[in-house]
Design a protein that fits this description.
Shape: globular
Distance between the termini: 9 Å
Structural class: alpha/beta
CATH superfamily of the largest domain: Glycogen Phosphorylase B
Number of domains: 2
Order of helices and strands: EHHEEHEHHEEHEHHEHEEHEHEHEHEHH
GO molecular function, one term: glycosyltransferase activity
Keywords: Transferase
CATH class of the largest domain: Alpha Beta
GO biological process, one term: lipopolysaccharide biosynthetic process
Organism: Pseudomonas peli
Helix content: 25-40%
Strand content: 15-25%
Number of helices: 15
CATH architecture of the largest domain: 3-Layer(aba) Sandwich
Largest sheet: 8 strands, mixed
Protein name: Glycosyl transferases group 1
């Protein structure tokens, strides 16, 4: 891939205000491509044919744009007081854009070797693409399209699903391929007929920047009876099953990071069902705080029901932290077999109880993820068997 020098990644404002997971993936992609010797440029579409060149700096690539940390509460009682009040809307309804810094568009090349459109709905909204030799679109999942058939009266879901459809059609008919974040996503796209012309590729497994360079002194630490939850406030992430799993472990403390993507009643019910009083909930965290949360925990509990990739399990491993996660794709392709939760609820509870008392070597998890993510290979097949990245 050494001949690919200039790569642009296209985003829109929703990537910096709403779709925090999408931004995390794209920043990981940018950092990985840069680490392999490419010049990567980020172009953000801010409105009607308006664009800005976004500076790819540490605050964005490593901290995901979260400049600082926001603590919601440091006890169950304090958090319940907050979520029962109207103040919780500040978190649930926030569309404030995270911190980015722009630079002159004049610094961009006139033509790129490769243009990566960061999401299908972005492709659907752009009237004019940058000049490039090749174009690909990133696919995360087909969940909006799948869920629309279950909720056809949901107008917002209908519009979002249609934007996915239009973007995938553009990538299939006018671009050089759709690239998926996992094999599962590729199969989902194929079921809906996406990629039938230009082809479907799969990105290699990557881990967000900073994790593989953590010093061992930050990993080999004593860990108490502390459980960690990563972005749990979403039904698709197993929200409804989490309180009973946490309670089964009889943990001394619980740490949580992530913004709510569930109803107000579900959020209140979640904290009411927890038996632990020592709870910290961080809404936004930068890299250092996230590492601190991972390395202070005995286990990350991540019973997701629908997952495009699953960065939290990779991040936890890189921090030497044990994981218990769902036996679904692609999560079961990323973790050790003993870290997969059983289907039976009683057996799951027993797994959590055993994990709390197990003596583990944190560096074993670190070595596992290093082997999985150390050298991502972008030599992937696209239209007519040609490599999307290496032509």
């Amino acid at each position: 891939m050494s001949h690919l020098n200039d790569i642009c990644v296209i985003t829109d404002n929703t990537v910096f205000s709403v779709h925090h997971g999408v931004r995390r993936y794209l920043m990981t992609l940018c950092a990985t491509l840069e680490a392999q010797g490419n010049r990567v440029y980020l172009i953000n579409c801010t409105g009607q044919d308006q664009t800005e060149a976004v500076v790819l700096e540490r605050s964005l690539l490593v901290d995901n744009g979260f400049i600082g940390n926001r603590l919601v509460g440091s006890s169950r009682s304090e958090i319940l007081d907050f979520v029962r009040s109207s103040r919780v809307r500040e978190l649930r309804d926030s569309t404030e854009r995270v911190g980015v810094r722009s630079e002159s568009l004049d610094k961009l090349p006139l033509r790129f070797d490769l243009c990566i459109v960061g999401a299908p709905w972005i492709a659907a909204s752009i009237s004019s693409m940058p000049m490039a030799d090749r174009y690909v679109c990133v696919a995360y999942d087909a969940i909006p399209n799948r869920y629309y058939f279950d909720n056809p009266e949901d107008i917002g879901l209908h519009l979002f699903a249609h934007a996915h459809y239009k973007g995938y059609r553009w990538a299939d008919e006018k671009a050089d391929g759709i690239f998926c974040i996992s094999e599962l996503t590729a199969r989902e796209c194929q079921k809906f007929g996406f990629g039938g012309h230009s082809g479907l590729g799969v990105f290699p497994t990557m881990i967000p920047p900073g994790y593989l360079t953590l010093d061992a002194s930050r990993i080999e630490v004593d860990r108490g009876r502390v459980a960690l939850l990563a972005a749990p406030f979403d039904r698709r992430k197993g929200l409804l099953s989490i309180p009973s799993l946490v309670n089964a472990g009889q943990f001394d403390s619980l740490r949580i990071f992530g913004r709510p993507r569930c109803s107000h009643d579900e959020l209140v019910s979640f904290f009411e069902k927890l038996d632990i009083e020592d709870i910290q909930w961080w809404c936004d965290v930068d890299f250092d705080k996230q590492v601190e949360l991972y390395t202070s925990a005995k286990v990350l509990i991540f019973p997701s029901l629908n997952e495009g990739l699953g960065f939290p399990v990779l991040e936890a491993y890189a921090c030497g932290t044990s994981v218990l996660t769902s036996n679904i794709e692609p999560l079961n392709q990323l973790v050790r077999g003993e870290d997969l939760l059983a289907d039976d609820e009683v057996a799951r509870f027993e797994q959590v109880r055993r994990r709390v008392d197990e003596v583990v070597d944190p560096m074993n998890y670190r070595r596992f993820v290093e082997k999985l993510c150390a050298a991502p290979d972008f030599g992937l097949a696209g239209k007519e068997g040609r490599g999307v990245f290496n032509g």
